[in-house]
Design goal:
Layout lengths: L1 H131 L3 H4 L2 H6 L14 H7 L5 H8 L3 H15 L12 H14 L3 H8 L3 H23 L5 H15 L4 E12 L6 H4 L2 H7 L4 E9 L5 E9 L4 H7 L1 H7 L7 E3 L10 E2 L9 H27 L14 H17 L26 H16 L10
Parallel strand pairs: 1-4, 4-5
Antiparallel strand pairs: 1-2, 2-3
Helix pairs in contact: 6-7, 6-9, 7-9, 8-9, 9-16, 15-17
Length: 504
């Protein structure tokens, strides 16, 4: 009996031990499963973190490559542009040399022909005198003395000068004179006196020289009307080639004599008055100029056609257009203080600015502490102040843009009066591309003289300027300029200098 009980107890203990070991084994299995799951989770997190690092490195590498690619493209473009302008200058220089050589050769041929004609005429006269047995020297007769003086040896076509003779008459109405030459008689006389020492020519035994007043009048009428040389020739009774030569000679004289006097950067005293007047217009201090760039239509050039192609004007007018640029800075009265003329029409405003002498002087620190106001086509720099161009402007930014627009209207209005005065700027001209900067510079100088002397533009000849502005790729060139612009905008709004018309 006791043995059977002991056997049962041993069996019971073995079952308990077996159950216990099974429970422990089951718990260990669960713990191992949980540990394995945790290891997999940790491994996944590490892999995700490594993958994220790899993705960030690849993105940064791609950004660096893109930046390098953009810099390379920009460098290549700048290099190509520099090379192009170098080639363009060489071409113009070669053209000028060839033209000068041609003129010298033509002049030499003319002199040779004149000398031959004179010798033939003298021989014929000597034979005639010998045959008639007339000895003017021996007799000392007045007829002989008169015959020894200068005589015309070249045939000159007789052309009518009635219109020009009427213009010179004291009874010619001032209104008609101003309509023809875009200035009053006093201003015309003033320009003639200034240029007389340069453009005056002496009479020769071949022909009489064209008077100074007629030389200046030919140039002014050609610039004012833009009419072809054929009509200029009829108006003034001169040859077509003579009129063309006179226009270029007078324009060159204006550039040499009058431009240093009447188109220059203001001195300190005048600059102070310019700042005060601009501040009274806009409420913004230290503005010394208003800048604008316009386009002058030209005939398609034979070389570098693509550079002068104006896509914006072509798209707007639905007609192929070629042009050159004129960048100008004006004072509050619309008088030009700086011009940059002649760059191809395909260049945007910011590139024209970077090529100009104005930009070079700014890099040398000439405009430190002052502002020149430009439009949205120019970049914001430490000396060029432009409007805000991004969307969703604040009230402060709207008010600032309005004031900047009032300053820009000074330059825009000056260019409108410039093109209104000189009709040759409104349409394609016959002037050669290499001569065009001299002609355009003369127009700007004459504009300044008229503005300074109070010769306004009649409403009947008003011309509206339309030039498309392109926001530059890099519109912000200076962090300090951004802060300064924000400060100016804040002061305008909070010191009651800004209007709120944009709210209406």
């Amino acid at each position: 009996m006791s043995e059977s009980k002991q056997k049962q107890q041993r069996k019971r203990r073995r079952r308990e031990e077996t159950n216990t070991s099974d429970g422990v084994t089951e718990v260990d299995g669960k713990l191992a499963t949980v540990k394995m799951g945790m290891d997999e989770i940790v491994t996944s997190l590490v892999l995700l973190e490594d993958q994220e690092k790899i993705d960030l490195e690849e993105e940064e590498r791609a950004n660096q490559e893109e930046i390098l690619r953009f810099e390379e493209i920009d460098t290549r473009k700048k290099r190509e542009m520099i090379y192009y302008y170098s080639e363009l200058q060489d071409f113009h220089r070669d053209s000028e040399r060839a033209e000068a050589a041609r003129r010298r050769k033509s002049k030499a041929n003319s002199f040779a022909a004149a000398a031959t004609a004179m010798s033939v005429t003298a021989a014929a006269a000597a034979d005639s005198i010998s045959d008639d047995k007339i000895s003017a020297v021996a007799d000392n007769s007045p007829a002989a003395a008169a015959g020894a003086g200068p005589q015309r040896r070249l045939w000159v076509k007789n052309r009518s000068r009635d219109w020009w003779d009427q213009c010179q008459s004291p009874n010619f109405p001032d209104e008609d004179f101003k309509k023809a030459f875009r200035m009053g008689k006093d201003t015309f006389d003033f320009i003639c006196n200034e240029l007389s020492s340069v453009v005056a020519k002496e009479n020769t035994m071949l022909r009489d020289a064209v008077p100074v007043r007629q030389r200046v009048a030919v140039c002014l009428w050609r610039l004012a009307t833009g009419e072809p040389l054929r009509l200029v020739s009829k108006k003034f009774g001169l040859g077509i080639s003579t009129c063309h030569k006179l226009v270029l000679e007078v324009c060159s004289a204006i550039k040499t004599v009058l431009m240093p006097k009447y188109l220059k950067w203001p001195d300190e005293e005048k600059l102070s008055r310019v700042k005060d007047k601009f501040e009274s217009i806009s409420g913004i201090p230290n503005i010394v100029g208003s800048m604008y760039t316009t386009h002058i239509p030209i005939i398609a050039p034979k070389n570098s056609v693509a550079a002068y192609f104006n896509k914006r004007h072509t798209d707007r007018n639905q007609k192929t257009s070629y042009s050159i640029t004129v960048q100008g800075v004006v004072d509050p009265n619309g008088v030009f203080t700086d011009v940059c003329i002649g760059y191809p029409g395909s260049m945007p405003d910011d590139q024209v600015l970077e090529k100009s002498t104005l930009f070079q002087r700014a890099n040398a620190g000439f405009y430190n502490g002052v502002w020149i106001v430009g439009g949205s086509g120019y970049p914001l720099t430490d000396w060029v102040l432009v409007p805000y161009t991004h969307q969703h402007l604040t009230w402060t930014q709207h008010a600032f843009n309005e004031k900047i627009g009032e300053v820009r209207n000074c330059a825009r209005g000056a260019f409108e009066r410039l093109k209104s005065r000189w009709g040759c700027l409104q349409k394609r001209t016959e002037v050669k591309l290499q001569d065009l900067p001299v002609v355009l510079g003369a127009c700007c100088v004459l504009h300044n003289i008229c503005e300074m002397r109070g010769d306004g533009v009649e409403d009947a000849v008003r011309f509206e300027v339309v030039d498309d502005e392109m926001v530059p790729e890099i519109g912000l060139r200076s962090a300090n300029a951004m802060k300064a612009r924000d400060t100016i905008a804040h002061n305008l709004l909070h010191h009651n200098h800004a209007s709120t018309s944009f709210l209406s």
